[in-house]
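Bumping with the actual sequence this time:
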Amino acid sequence: MGKVHQRRIITETKNKLAAKISEATNVLLPENSGYIIAEPGEKTTKISQTQLSNSVDVTSAKKHFDLLLDFGPYDIDYSLNGRQLLIGGRKGHVAAMDWITKHLMCEINVMEEVYDVKWLHNENLFSVAQKKWVYMYDNQGVEVHCLKNLNNVLHQEFLPYHFLLSTASEEGFLSWLDVSMGKLVSQFNAKMGRLSLMTQNQNNALICLGHTKGVVSMWSPNLREPVAKILCHGNMITSLAINSNGMYMATSGMDRSIKIWDLRRLKGPLQDYKVRTSPRSMVFSQTGSLAVAINNVVDVYEECCIKTIQHAYLRHNIARTINNLAFCPFEDVLGAGHDGGFSSMLIPGSGEPNFDALERNPFQTKKQRKEAEVKMLLEKIPAEMITLESTVDEVDLNTLNTKLTARNSLQTVKPLKINIKVRNKIKKKTLANPSKIKEKILEEKTKEFVKALNARSKDKIDERKSTVSKRVSVLDRFQNKRNKKK
């Protein structure tokens, strides 16, 4: 117990030092997040999207737009760098585009129901959960794979650091597929009924599921039982969301409440909010803002996990019922897929203003994308490291000590240096080259040295065997036959 306590103290001091260093590096990050300054006595919830688009610059105003489509309700997903948008309609319409330049990459109709769409490690591949199986397409709309092991899938989640595509099916099966090798890592029945809600914890790569009995369960591909369970509501959970650093979880139930939970201690609720009806979808932004979809209204709350707030930050009405929400990475934009198509809304302060170009680069070129893909494959984390407590940045001291003791116990003896001098006599007929003579003598000397070393080790083994008492083994029954032969 003393060693464990000492290790915890060491890790805490290291974390404090890392926090101080990160605070010192904030000077090098010049960009600030967006904000809204309301007039005295005016609430920000009354500011409409048209007023926001008229108040910002031209490039930001173009990010607010609507797509009127006839194949809804639509599911949406943004790429990891926030540049590309993928939409999928329930009636079979699938489209991928660069939503900033409005360039359409591909548009297809799969001629069957589509339940979920998801970008993979880059914008070259995306997966579509169709009526029967999961299909993979490239950015030109060409079918690349048909995954018949994943059938009747309702939701998908992609783990970028593990290259795993996780799916939840209608029959209650959970699956993890390694996209880099095309290998099914794990697949089993969760025994929780129909899996209608699914999200991922980006901190430890656990899959979180919401169930009809008000329980949220967390799953790893290494165990066939949930890693942890939290009873969040007394009735069915309608939506589920986890923030980017994996500290807080937001849940909503049929009791028309939104609860905030602390995932570090698995305790709560920290906050409990009452809303007019049960939300259909919730999502966290990179800066911690929570977007809630209630029928055809989108409410955005700021800092709702840290403190209790009285009213929403922004509110927007859409003419159709909202299906799901998604914040665009590194942009102050919220996307909403609904029955009538897709809507892009401006939410100042929701995106991370300072991005790491070596991690996620929205402006990467074709060459940089290839290099980033190779780097991601080299830094791929194995699926065995997905646990409740993230151990990626820690050292396993037990295995390290065993390796060091095993290496120190090995008997390593350096061979003696053999000095050979060959006389160079001038003769009329030279029989052999002096270098070859040196090689032959060196081989003979090394053979003698190895033989002597082996004989010495055999003598030591015989001495050890003589000291140890005889043990009964399976081969002792043949000993009498050998004695008879002798």
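The tokens above came from a reply further down the thread. The first strand starts at residue 65 and ends at 68.
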